[in-house]
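Action item from last meeting closed. Structure (253 res):
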């Protein structure tokens, strides 16, 4: 990489590169960060010093790590989504009643972001933790959202993000995706069969606000051996029950 630019935009970008590197490396020494980003130690040190002073990075035994300050900011961002507070108890109940993982996802900048997840005692560990970003076309949750977004918005998302394959079963053709979205509108639910994670199947339904605009989706996820490609009546009933309650609460909040 070239040396540090004097422009504020480049300086800000460098700080975020360092933060993302610390997350990727799960903490690192100055020289490790510099090598990872191909930047001079002096440049990285100046950024780290500022980030430490502002409380966004902590240093212990010369190891730098992302601080819990981001948790505060993340919680604030999540709390601004009215759907989170309303859906949280319903997601918990879905997990208990289905003995699987239940999730809440919203769309932001053309990607899906998990903002809440609940696990049953018998559910398998999944990477659906709050803050996880995923491709909308590769998940039942994302497809449920895409199915009810305006066509112009869907086109803009596809232009921005494309249709990258996550597994051998991911939809990567626009016409195939369009057909799938039409089916979702007809049936009222979306499903992905190992399209994001091998061995995992997910069933989801969209959540709309009082104006009929889609603002998120909820799901049940689990091993393909436990969740059928033709959704189990119990799973779908739980999702539709929760959808109804969430939408009613949103309308009267």
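Sequence:
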């Amino acid at each position: 990489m070239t040396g540090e630019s004097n422009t504020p935009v480049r300086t800000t970008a460098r700080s975020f590169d360092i933060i993302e590197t610390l997350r990727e490396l799960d903490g690192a020494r100055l020289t490790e960060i510099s090598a990872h980003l191909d930047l001079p130690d002096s440049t990285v040190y100046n950024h780290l010093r500022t980030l430490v002073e502002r409380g966004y990075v902590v240093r212990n035994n010369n190891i730098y790590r992302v601080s819990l300050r981001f948790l505060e900011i993340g919680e604030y961002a999540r709390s601004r989504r009215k759907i989170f507070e309303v859906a949280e108890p319903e997601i918990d109940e879905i997990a208990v009643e289905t003995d699987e993982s239940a999730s809440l996802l919203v769309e932001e900048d053309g990607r899906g972001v998990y903002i809440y997840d609940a696990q049953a005692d018998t559910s398998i560990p999944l990477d659906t933790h709050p803050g996880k970003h995923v491709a909308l076309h590769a998940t039942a949750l994302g497809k449920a959202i895409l199915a009810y977004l305006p066509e112009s918005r869907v086109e803009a998302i596809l232009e921005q993000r494309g249709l990258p394959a996550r597994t051998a079963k991911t939809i990567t053709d626009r016409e195939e995706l369009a057909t799938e979205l039409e089916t979702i509108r007809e049936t009222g639910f979306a499903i992905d069969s190992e399209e994001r994670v091998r061995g995992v199947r997910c069933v989801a339904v969209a959540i709309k606000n009082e104006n009929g605009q889609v603002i998120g989706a909820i799901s049940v996820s689990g091993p393909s051996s436990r969740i059928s490609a033709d959704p189990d009546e119990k799973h779908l009933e739980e999702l539709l029950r929760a959808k109804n309650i969430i939408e009613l609460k949103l309308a009267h909040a």
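Note appended to the action item: The chain has two domains: 8-67, 78-252.
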